[in-house]
Amino acid sequence: DVPDTLSHLLAFVLVLLGAHPLGLFFPKYFRLPLITGYLVAGILSGPFLANLLNEDVVGILGSYVNAFALSFISFQAGQEIYLPELRPQIKSIVALLATYYCTAMALGTTVFMLAAGVSFYSGLVHRCQLGIELMFASISVLVSPSTVMGLKVELNSVGPFTHVALGTCMTAEFVVLVSFSVSRVVASIYCAKLAREHRLHHGHRAHEPRARSAARTRDDPHLPAAERPA
User: Fold this and answer.
1) Torsion angle (degrees, nearest 10) of CA 164, 166, 170, 172
2) Is the separation of the CB atoms in 13 and 66 below 8 Å?
3) 157: DSSP letter
């Protein structure tokens, strides 16, 4: 519907215009980055508070806004990565990424294992639960490139620490993709095996009443021989 789409676009533009001065308010009075104000503006205008951007607006424009934002963030991050500057920091990037990945995976898997009793996968076998927990833990390794790039651009930061942070953030994206893919394969193997056994078990249980009914009919002395099952 064209009028509804135009009204949704107008609401989105008005929220964008209002988010900019609100974003400037936080660095001036609270010494917080601009992105904090933008996050607060999004929370206030979202469907759970002011409802300026209701669920229909989020559903219609969300995918397009995410696609454009990811494109600009990826382009800006790729523009900032300069291999001659990163080469002296490769050892630091690898060490930081390995420490962060192992810590996040260990803590994430432990937390989800402890919470398995109240989760949707509480009734599954342990191997299937482990695959699901590894997927959740892999997602927890993610680092937001938008936050890193926003702070870098706002502060105009340069130097070894900036190169290490940016290199770790961008490399973590690749590591998370590989880790999540492996965890998904593990979960698919054991959970698919469990689902197959579950279907066989229920099929056998559904067949038992029919077999008992046929046996009773066959042994019924009052039933004519022509109507008895073979």
Assistant:
1) 50
2) no
3) -
Measured distance CA(190)–CA(157) in Å, rounded: 47
Residues 160 and 169: their CA atoms lie apart, in Å, by 14
CA distance 218 to 187: 46
Two structure tokens written together for 146: 């938008």
Report the alpha-carbon distance of residue 79 to residue 85 in Å, rounded: 13
Q: What is the pLDDT of residues 141-167, one digit of tens each?
A: 888 787 888 888 888 888 888 888 888
The model carries a pTM of 0.67
- Residue-by-residue DSSP string for 184-210: HHHHHHHHHHHHHHHHHHHHHHHHHHH
SS3 122: coil
